[in-house]
Amino acid sequence: GGLYWYNAQLHGQLQNNLGELEKAVQAENWEEAKQISKKLEETWKEADTAWSPVMDRRDVDRVDESLIRVGHLSASRQKDELLLEISMAKRFVDRLLQKESISIKSVF
Fold first, then answer.
1. Is the CB of residue 90 less than 8 Å from the CB of residue 44?
2. Model pLDDT, residue 55
3. Mean per-residue pLDDT for 55-61?
4. Cα–Cα distance between 48 and 28 in angstroms, integer?
5. pLDDT band at 81 (very low <50, low <70, confident <90, very high)
């Protein structure tokens, strides 16, 4: 259960970062958005390292690509596109953990 708990932690952190970023962007607080983007990048690096060996590569890549777009759109302050991409990233992260919890449960 330790691995599942750790994955759930990372998932929660990613979703928190994305939620905070969403709020900052809606308020057009670009300085805060930049800081949160950095945090998100670090969280994702940790999650990517943990998840790549055990999760479906395509799902991990999908999150990776989405978060790269989030970072880029955040840096260029493209509010509407960024809010859309944040929503997508949240969904991809959720889907990743849902699939993972199913496969972990089926292992034990």
1. no
2. 84
3. 89
4. 29
5. very high
| The residue to which tokens 């809010």 are assigned | 83
The two tokens of residue 11 are 């998932």
Q: 70 versus 7: which is more confidently predicted?
A: 70
Q: CA separation (Å) from 27 to 4, 22, 60?
A: 34, 9, 29
Longest dimension (CA), the chain: 46
What pLDDT, on the 0 to 100 scale, is given for residue 106?
56
CA–CA separation, 51 and 63 (whole Å): 11
- Residue 4 has a pLDDT of 77
3-state class of 28 per DSSP? coil
Instruction: Return the sign of the alpha-carbon dihedral for residues 23, 29, 34, 36.
Output: negative
Taking residue 7's Cβ as centre, other Cβ atoms within 10 Å add up to 20
- Tokens representing 107 are 């292992």
Q: Let me know: does 69 contact 85? Beta carbons within 8 Å.
A: yes
Mean pLDDT confidence for 62-89: 96
